Amino acid sequence: EDQVTQSPEALRLQEGESSSLNCSYTVSGLRGLFWYRQDPGKGPEFLFTLYSAGEEKEKERLKATLTKKESFLHITAPKPEDSATYLCAVLETSGSRLTFGEGTQLTVNP
Amino acid sequence: DGGITQSPKYLFRKEGQNVTLSCEQNLNHDAMYWYRQDPGQGLRLIYYSQIVNDFQKGDIAEGYSVSREKKESFPLTVTSAQKNPTAFYLCASSLTGVTNSPLHFGNGTRLTVT
What we know:
The structure holds two protein chains of two kinds.
Chain A: E1 3-7, E2 10-14, E3 19-26, E4 30-38, E5 45-50, E6 56-59, E7 62-66, E8 70-75, E9 84-92, E10 98-100, E11 104-109
Parallel strand pairs in A: 2-11
Antiparallel strand pairs in A: 1-3, 3-8, 4-5, 4-9, 6-7, 7-8, 9-10, 9-11
Chain B: E1 4-7, E2 10-13, E3 19-25, E4 31-37, E5 44-51, E6 54-57, E7 64-66, E8 76-78, E9 87-94, E10 104-105, E11 109-113
Parallel strand pairs in B: 2-11
Antiparallel strand pairs in B: 1-3, 3-8, 4-5, 4-9, 5-6, 7-8, 9-10, 9-11
């Protein structure tokens, strides 16, 4: 059974304090790994798709990386508006549905 | 402005009543999905549809029903058979199925059953 584990569950940072979120996965073969951002009371918003180990994607202060067993979402010099829950999801090679992790709730204090 | 509209935002029902959640998209996407989100758990797939007049059960379909009579619309009915219906429900769509394109989500309906 596909498993996706995100850590930490919650993370508090000071504005400007860089850090990383982790998404570990267990699948027989990875077709794609997706990162989403979710604000309270809203639906998730798509950030990145990664397809193969070694791939990196960047958007403003966020950079997502992928290895064969995990993905990291690096946040450089975060701002309070980066506060949200970040979700990762994996799609197995033979699958047609995403398996989501439980998310990391990020709070950036001014 | 294209997107997914879920209504209502908040819904309250008494136990034993069926309730239907609306989901409409104007993105011209073929595939649509319903997820349930509970605190401390990842999103769980209820039903999905890759084409009009066809849909498949997800991981937690028991107590739910759907229809896909139009490309733009994918309503979800929460029946009285669903044992723990109180949750945040998210509708999503993708261009041709999640294998090829990311999901676009609506802003959810929070259902409370007492």
